[in-house]
Specification:
two-stranded antiparallel sheet; about 130 residues; alpha+beta; 4 helices
Length: about 130
């Protein structure tokens, strides 16, 4: 079940759909730590002791719409079946370098805090390669 009861918006060419959604009062919840597979524009971040390349479409969208950015992760509670949510922000998209620094720190800290929770270990090599576009 979708927790937000909002429609899914696939990546690639989704700017207008996201823009229309936000203009109607909706919000966007998305994964920025998706592998780019050499097919997306990226931003370099420093995490896990190396440079990783993450798609930057969400950051470019937040910049264009002047939307605050929140970073979050969820993980299983050590005390039972509940989930814990960790949130940091809001961050201004107008301060791109500061936002990328926050993303770098947050991603690194959260993966180190709970390595088993990161869903992209099998794609790690693709994060270390700059995109081909």
């Amino acid at each position: 079940t979708r927790s937000t009861h909002a429609p899914a918006i696939p990546t690639g060419g989704s700017f207008q759909r996201m823009s229309d959604w936000v203009d109607r009062g909706g919000s966007i919840t998305a994964l920025f730590d998706a592998p780019h597979f050499g097919q997306r524009k990226t931003m370099p971040i420093e995490a896990l002791g190396q440079t990783l390349y993450l798609p930057d479409g969400l950051i470019r969208f937040a910049e264009a719409k002047n939307l605050p950015v929140y970073l979050y992760t969820t993980s299983l509670s050590e005390d039972g079946p509940q989930r814990r949510m960790f949130v940091r922000g809001p961050f201004s998209p107008a301060k791109r370098e500061a936002l990328i620094h926050e993303i770098s720190c947050f991603m690194h800290e959260e993966i180190v805090r709970d390595p088993a929770a990161w869903h992209c270990w099998r794609f790690l090599d693709s994060f270390t390669l700059p995109p081909q576009i």
